[in-house]
Amino acid sequence: MAENKNSFIIYTDWKQDFEFLTDEEAGKLIKHLLRFASDENPTIENEDRLLQFAAQKMKAVMKKDLKKYEAVIQKRSEAGKKGGVNSGKSRTSKQDEANKANASTPKQNERVNDNVNDNVILLKKETKYVVDDEAENVEKISEFKNFLKTEKQIQMDRLRMAHKLTDEELDLKIDEFVEKKVSWGDDEKWHNTNDMAKNFEFWLNKYPKIQISSFKDWDKKQFFENINTSSGTVSKEVKQDFFNHYSQPTPSGEMLFQSFNAWDTKTRMKKWINSQNKFANVS
Q1: Residue 128 maps to a domain
Q2: Which residue in 5, 100, 175, 279 has a CA-CA distance of 20 to 30 Å to 169?
Q3: Long-range contacts made by residues 195-204, C-beta under 8 angstroms, separation at least 24?
Q4: CA 112, 114, 115, 121 torsion-angle sign
Q5: What is the 3-state secondary structure (H, E, C) of 154-177?
Q6: How confident is the model at residue 136 (pLDDT cuts 50, 70, 90)?
């Protein structure tokens, strides 16, 4: 069997095969399968033809499952490597943007009056806060995804079967979980990566459905409506400023808020208000 794989699936379809066997023969068959799974190359005596037939049938299924398992491992390993490369590119790109913003500040300040200066500085600081926050999160997101997809195979296989998900659907749920939790700061509550894996299982039991649409599909009207329904007693002026900032178009054509890995308007609004208060006090 595969390295570090210490389990295999017993199918309920095999029940009929076991019914034809005596309890002694059934015990021999189970021991034979366990030895086969442990790479011990077991054999069955020639006179036990019924036992041989059942064993060969079940081992063929186990071999097929093993090939599928190895293919999944390979695919997830490659996905993890790509995630690491992309996160590096993303951090470099965001740092370049931050450097350009810093370099352009003196020229901006020369063209505006004192009142506008305050607003520009505040916006610049808030933007830098968001960029730094996201750059730090990108690396964590990549590491957490890779851990769940490559280091917790037995747990992920069990969850995939329990929720009747395909490999691709399980990967999507892992991505959704990690991106949301890190973006919202919930990852700070995890003691270690194993604690994260437990949290993922609890979360998946609560939210097993695949998201059909997301914030990346919203238009400006939907985004503004979401702000109104998510912001409670926040003033209209703050809501409008928030909307104006995060609805700005990016070079890729999407709005700024859609460039984030995950988005929750209520949580982001709190960060927006806190950052404005924080930098207002500094100024």
Answers
A1: yes
A2: 5
A3: 196/144, 196/147, 196/148, 197/147, 197/148, 197/152, 197/155, 200/148, 200/174, 201/155, 201/159, 203/177, 204/159, 204/163, 204/173, 204/177
A4: positive
A5: HHHHHHHHHCCCCHHHHHHHHHHH
A6: low
